[in-house]
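The protein record passed on for reference:
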Amino acid sequence: MPTTSGLSFYQTDATTSQAITYGFDVLSAGDITVISVASTGAQVVLTLDTDYTLDIDTKTVTCTASSWTNLPNHPDIYPTSDIRIYRTTSILPSIDFKSGAVLSESDLDTAYKQGLFAAQEMAEDAALTGAGVQAVTENMLETGAVTADKIGANAVTESRILNGAVTNAKIANDAVNAAKIQNGTVGSDELAANCVTTAKIGANQVTTTQIVNSAVTQAKVEKASKGNMEALTGSSAQSQGIVTPDVLRYSQFAPRCYGSVAYVSGSATVSPGSYNVNSSTASQPTASGSRKIVFAINMANTNYVVVGSVGDIGGGAGDNGAISVKEKNVGYFIVETGEPDDADRFIDFVVFGSNLLA
């Protein structure tokens, strides 16, 4: 729409400009209202000092952006929209004449203009209400007149709420849900003491870095059952036990090798229950009197201890005799006893030490 004007309004399609000069008079700055009017007739009321500034001496309104179409709070102002500046004069008495008081020209002018301006605004429908009653401006409202029942549902938008006005008391219980909390804003100071309960911690979320040094005391370690301690096969639907042979064999109290070898001339058979022995047969370095036991897994060094004895299941002479270690190597050891060979005789041995090579 091209520029139109009257005694109480000024409307222009110059939305790409910044300053607009209107030509009518006003009694006060509060009587001026600025709106945008879309081609559909939809109106948007603009805010003084936010969207525009006002100079009633030069009768100029100036957009706070580079143009009216660039106002950040009003993307619904289009190049096809109009900007309308109009006056709405208060209908409340501005001058109270007292009996015997001196009548000044200024008071008479103000009282006259108030009635004249109000009549002009009604006649020209300055506020585009489509009716005889014009828009109610701030000056027309008594203090406290806008009560809760006068405000329509969903009428208070973000721009109507003063910064800092929504205090804790204004927020209903359980009103702030997860979607209303900005990402990364809940820090340690925002968490109440003892609010992170077990139910709030997700499965497998506590890693090594979350555990304070020395925090896992003996009381925190659950006792393992027999099933926990035993090593399972690791096949489908099974998992490895807590204490596996690999764990046990590195314990300082666990033997690194043990077994029983026959002490029969010409035979050096090792019992099937032996541990960490290279084969089921131990070598016989001499015709009799000694045996060489080869490790399945080498020892870390020769600083190991061999404990052994001679037994005789037949109850013959020399039962439970002692043995001596003739040679120690990381891969084997040789033991010897002074007892004669016998079909019922055997040597028991246990080795303590380390076979951790790294």
About this structure: The chain is about 10% helix and 20% strand. Confidence is low (pLDDT under 50) at residues 231-236.
